[in-house]
Amino acid sequence: MSEIIELLRGRLGERVSLGDEDRAAHSHDYWALTALRSSRGQPPPQVAAVVRPADTSEVSWVLARCHETGTPVIPYGLGSGVCGAIMGRPDAVVLSLEGLTGLHHLDEHNGTARFGAGTRGSDAEAAVAAEGFTLGHQPQSIGVSTVGGWVATRASGQFSTAYGNIEDLITDIEVVLADGRVLRTATTPRSSTGPDLRQLFLGSEGTLGVITEVGFSLIRRPESTAGQAFHFVDMEAGLEAIRVVVQSGWAPPVARLYDPRESLHHFPEDCPEGRCALLWVHEGPVPRVEVEVDAVARICADLGGESLNPSTVDQWFEHRNRVSPWESFFERGIVLDTIEVGCSWDRAGELYRRAVSSCSRVDGVLSVSAHSSHSYRAGTALYFTFLARPDDGSLMENTYLECWAAVMDAVGEVGGVISHHHGIGRVRRGYLAEQLGPVGLDLLRSIKGALDPRAILNPGALIPD
Questions:
Q1: CA-CA distances (angstroms) from residue 169 to 393, 438, 443?
Q2: Closest Cα to residue 335, out of 31, 18, 36?
């Protein structure tokens, strides 16, 4: 490693960091299992160095040198991923994108903007908001994730039911391939010039290329925003309300349905115990919002929904991005995580029941709950949360993995998708072969071999061995 590090330092100088704390901080993401192991004195191996290029040309040069020497490279945004896509190894360097930040271009007439891939999501949103726009992408992690990370994980935001997911919101990307070549896709609203090359890198988790710039198709800041909430007898009734609303052509950006456990947790003073809270947020021109609010309210009432205090939506806005650190639970012997999956409408109720039932049977499980967070004409995403406290603290990791297996098995039995927006990383990698099938997995490996023949980009993430 000394040879490649000296080579990199010859070009980037002190922007190649060898400090112990720096290397340790960049050797993991926010995966619960990594945090659990670290809390027990088993941190992940440290990388050899943290490299901080200042622009695309330097990223290209670094990757070319690492390609020539066969040095593994781990691309790094802000480390907010929760699936273990980042894992240190002593023969690898981390390529930090913190130097590739800021608004590079904003076109008010066409409603487009381009950012360096390392730009913090909340900074990007603030930059376009100053000009009367929004990105339309509001993940819970907006303050701790980057726009490049959104593309690399195929992310989804809380307002996706109307505005779409990251693949619907971008116009173009710039990517540096493993050998240092730079690909920039065309900045157009749509193209029929063969396969969409952007799709190769959406969800690639740093294994096929390093995203250095992202272009967005912006949305004008809405003239009006309104919220309303209802409660239903069970998840199936609430899911049916969302399905009817979306398939009727209405497009509220937010449609969130909480099961009884989560409804009681989030809205103890508003939602009756045992009922499921359904929150709607409507945005757009005043006349459209007014009509949509009335239409959605009628649909909910017709399907058995009863009104909740509108302040329920205000509570959600106030608390929606608050997350307790893993360590506060580990100290009490509790292991936990969230698992987001998806399926068609006809399978959603069954998936909810099977996953909750199966995960609840794992020894030590304290609670399993879920909510519907992103919906489409053809189906929805379910977001499960489990907490477990095994009698023997040494079994926390086993219990964690058993809970994951229970939910993944339920998804397989029902015929759903094992990840909606968090990605694969390492926690889901063992389930990907069944999800893609042998032909799909062979194709993914072939693409990896073509784009990264020396397999230097983020080895161990996404692609099963």
A1: 44, 31, 26
A2: 36
CATH class of the domain comprising 326-414: alpha beta
Ramachandran angles phi, psi of 355, nearest 5°: -65, -45
**Separation CA 407–CA 136 (nearest Å):** 30
Amino acid code (one letter) for 223: E
Instruction: Please report the DSSP string for 264-302 in residue order.
Output: HHH-TTTSPTT-EEEEEEEEESHHHHHHHHHHHHHHHHH
Positive or negative, the CA dihedral 116, 120, 125, 128 is: negative
**Distance separating alpha carbons of residues 143 and 373, to the nearest angstrom:** 19
Distance CA 297, CA 288 (A): 14
pLDDT of residue 317: 87
Cα(313)–Cα(324) distance, integer angstroms: 21
In this structure, what DSSP letter does residue 156 have?
-
| Protein fold of 103-220 | 3.30.465
Strand order in the sheet with 16-17: 16-17, 49-51, 93-96, 73-76
Residue 319 pLDDT: 82
What class has domain 224-319?
Answer: alpha beta
CA nearest neighbour of 174 among 126, 105, 86, 108? 105
Beta strands across the sheet bearing 210-217: 103-107, 112-116, 210-217, 170-176, 182-184
Supply angle C-alpha 189, 194, 197, rounded to 5. 70
Alpha carbon distance 161, 251 (integer Å): 7
Burial class from Cβ neighbours inside 10 Å (0-12, 13-18, 19+) for residue 331 reads exposed
Whole-angstrom distance, CA of residue 30 vs CA of residue 16: 23
Distance CA 456, CA 66 (A): 8
Q: Spell out the residues 6+ positions from residue 345 whose beta carbon is closer than 8 angstroms to its own.
A: 239, 243, 378, 379, 380
Residue-wise DSSP of 106-148: EETTTTEEEEETT-BHHHHHHHHHTTTEE-S---TTTTT-BHH
| Residue 395, burial from CB neighbour count under 10 angstroms (0-12, 13-18, 19+) | middle
Domain 103-220 identical in fold to domain 326-414: no
Contact 29, 81 (CB under 8 A): yes
The CATH architecture annotation of domain 2-96 reads: 2-Layer Sandwich (3.30)
181-187-193-195 Cα dihedral, nearest 10 degrees: 60
Residue 86: Cβ within 10 Å count: 29
* C-alpha to C-alpha distance for 115 and 48, rounded to whole angstroms: 29
DSSP states along 411-427: HHHHT-BS-SSS--TTT
pLDDT the model gives residue 320: 80
- The ranges assigned to domains in the chain are 2-96, 103-220, 224-319, 326-414
Residues of the chain under the 50 pLDDT cut:
none
Tell me what pLDDT residue 323 has: 79
